[in-house]
């Protein structure tokens, strides 16, 4: 049986390759929303922050550090997904009311 | 139910991957954001519900702490998302890198102290992960704050350099490295940890101050990558594969974006980070006055009106002048007259990757009119007018021809090949980069002096008048 470390390295390797392949295909139009989206996704460290803070034996220091971490990371989650949505909503193909004839 | 949380995590990881995959086109991108946020919701809910499974049977304590923190985070986050103007998106992005990195570093620190307090032995690999997590976290935190300060223009945008800078940075980093190794060997030396953290924080500041405003797209992308990798390291420390996956996705995204940015400037990572670009340019500085041709808004408007095709090249100056909505009016006015208007977008135009696209999309310019550099460059020779608004270095023909130019070799938009070139610029002062642009002295170039927003709106005013006459 592989250890936790080996499994994690395995997952890391695969995820990095998947990430590189997927990101390469992202339209350059969307590089700004892409960055805010990946930033919101990397706020997954909220899981670590919850595990630390929710520990029955958490010391006061741990609770304070964990508390600040959850605030910071939750700000990222909420603002990250909302602002990304606000951005991608703005990308429209054809103007609805932009005059009659558009010459090619 | 055994391992229920792990299954939730698998689903959530798959959602994150799909979320990024759907960013490949604007049509599916909203779906991408939706599934990404669903994945996050699932991960948070799964963690709270499956806490005992993850923590060896212990149930969640300190609910008040957790819930209060979540509420505060939400209360801060919602206004940021809705009030933030699109021109300030680079600053917000830098701020969110700072928040994410800070969280990772704090969780790392908390785990370190908690384990020492409980006299739990820290396995070597866990300690390595913790050290990397805190190092990357703290340096990205202060580094991103510095980047944000530069973008917000609270701090000077020009590179701050001094003699022996790279030596100081290298020494600091080496000391941090030695402390890190010592901490991995003897985790019970808790007194070293604050010193180590302090060095990481300081290093983040020193790393960013010598970098100029024009290099911000690359820097933001690199910081994005670091923030992701610190979350990834947390995944290793906690043995949590979801964190590893999400962190690796963010890390590789930042990596690809920074490679694209570096290529677009013909520079290497090391050159961006340690190149002290600013100093090189100072020498080039002041050249003697050469004659330029200038034109009034009326003249410029009549030239635009007579054109068949116009390519508008926007740059950071557009964001500064908040001129995107006026440009939309110009686009409408010209399109109505049958002029074919396109936008040529350089990858590093603006202060972060894709900055111009977001601004122009905000002004409702259809995205099929926004054309990347490689595609649009073939069209300049057939184009009647190239209109440069607030862009400078990315249009500088010296990058193609002048081997002594600091930007020699950088791919540029070939605006000088258009029949007529018009450049909206405040004055002949070279930008803070200080590189002179031979484009401005060409015979076919008309300089339009003025604020981008004011000038464009005067041109727009001219257009309907002529139509009526």
Alpha-carbon Rg of chain A, integer: 21 Å
Number of helices of chain B: 19
Strand content of chain A: under 5%
How much β-strand is present in the residues of chain B? 5-15%
Task: Write a brief structural summary.
Chain A is mostly helical and 104 residues long.
Give an overview in words.
The complex is a heterodimer of chains A (104) and B (469). Chain A contains four helices and no strands. Chain A is mainly α and 104 residues long. Chain A starts with a helix and ends in a 14-residue tail after the last helix. In chain A, 59% of the residues are buried. With 469 residues, chain B is of the alpha/beta class. Chain B is built from 19 helices and six strands. Chain B has helices spanning 4-21, 26-49, 51-54, 63-83, 89-117, 124-151, 165-185, 192-208, 216-238, 241-265, 269-274, 277-284, 297-306, 316-321, 324-336, 355-362, 373-376, 398-401, 452-468, and strands at 309-314, 340-345, 370-372, 385-389, 420-425, 445-449. In chain B, strands 3-2-1-4-5-6 form a six-stranded parallel β-sheet. The longest helix of chain B is centred in the first third of the chain and has 29 residues, at 89-117. Residues 277-285 of chain B have low confidence and may be disordered. Classes of the chains: A mainly alpha (104), B alpha/beta (469). Chains A and B meet through helix 1, helix 2, helix 3 and helix 4 of A and helix 1, helix 2, helix 4, helix 5 and helix 9 of B.
């Amino acid at each position: 049986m592989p250890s936790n470390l080996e499994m994690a390295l395995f997952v890391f390797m695969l995820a990095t390759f998947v990430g590189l392949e997927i990101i390469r295909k992202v339209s350059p139009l969307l590089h700004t929303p892409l960055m805010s989206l990946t930033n919101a996704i990397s706020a997954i460290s909220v899981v670590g922050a919850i595990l630390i803070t929710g520990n029955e034996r958490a010391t006061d220091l741990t609770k304070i550090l964990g508390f600040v971490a959850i605030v910071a990371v939750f700000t990222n989650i909420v603002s990250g997904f909302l602002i990304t949505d606000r951005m991608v909503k703005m990308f429209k193909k054809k103007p609805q009311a932009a005059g009659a004839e558009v010459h090619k | 139910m055994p391992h229920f949380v792990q299954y939730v995590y698998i689903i959530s990881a798959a959602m994150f991957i799909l979320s990024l995959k759907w960013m490949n086109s604007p049509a599916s991108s909203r779906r991408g954001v939706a599934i990404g946020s669903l994945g996050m919701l699932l991960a948070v809910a799964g963690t709270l519900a499956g806490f005992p499974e993850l923590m060896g049977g212990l149930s969640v304590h300190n609910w008040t702490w957790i819930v209060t923190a979540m509420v505060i985070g939400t209360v801060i986050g919602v206004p940021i998302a809705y009030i933030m103007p699109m021109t300030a998106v680079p600053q917000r992005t830098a701020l969110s890198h700072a928040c994410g990195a800070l969280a990772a570093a704090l969780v790392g620190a908390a785990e370190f102290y908690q384990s020492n307090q409980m006299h739990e032995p820290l396995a070597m690999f866990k300690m390595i992960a913790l050290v990397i997590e805190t190092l990357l976290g703290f340096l990205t935190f202060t580094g991103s704050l510095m980047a944000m300060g530069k973008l917000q223009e609270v701090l000077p945008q020009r590179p701050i350099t001094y003699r022996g800078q790279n030596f100081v940075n290298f020494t600091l980093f080496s000391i941090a490295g030695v402390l890190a190794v010592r901490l991995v060997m003897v985790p019970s030396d808790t007194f070293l940890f604050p010193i180590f953290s302090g060095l990481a924080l300081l290093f983040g500041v020193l790393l960013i101050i010598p970098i100029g405003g024009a290099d911000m797209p690359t820097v933001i992308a690199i910081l994005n990558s670091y923030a992701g990798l610190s979350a990834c390291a947390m995944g290793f420390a906690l043995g949590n594969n979801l964190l590893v996956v999400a962190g690796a996705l963010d890390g590789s995204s930042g990596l690809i974006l920074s490679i694209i940015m570096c290529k677009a400037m013909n520079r290497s990572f090391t050159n961006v980070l340690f190149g002290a670009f600013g100093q090189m340019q100072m020498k080039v500085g002041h050249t003697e006055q050469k004659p330029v041709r200038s034109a009034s808004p009326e003249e410029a408007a009549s030239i635009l009106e007579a054109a068949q095709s116009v390519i508008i090249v926007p740059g950071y100056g557009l964001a500064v002048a908040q001129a995107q909505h006026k440009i939309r009016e110009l686009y409408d006015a010209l399109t109505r007259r049958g002029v074919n208007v396109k936008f040529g977008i350089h990858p590093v135009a603006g202060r972060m990757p894709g900055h111009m696209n977001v601004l122009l999309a905000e002004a409702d310019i259809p995205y099929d009119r926004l054309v990347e550099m490689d595609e649009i460059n073939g069209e300049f020779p057939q184009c009647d007018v190239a209109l440069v608004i607030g862009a400078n270095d990315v249009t500088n023909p010296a990058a193609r021809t002048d081997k002594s130019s600091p930007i020699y070799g950088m791919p540029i938009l070939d605006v000088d090949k258009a029949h007529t070139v018009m450049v909206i610029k405040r004055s002949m002062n070279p930008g803070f980069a200080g590189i002179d642009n031979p484009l401005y002295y060409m015979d076919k170039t008309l300089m339009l002096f003025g604020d981008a927003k004011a000038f464009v709106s005067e041109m727009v005013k001219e257009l309907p008048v002529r139509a009526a006459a």
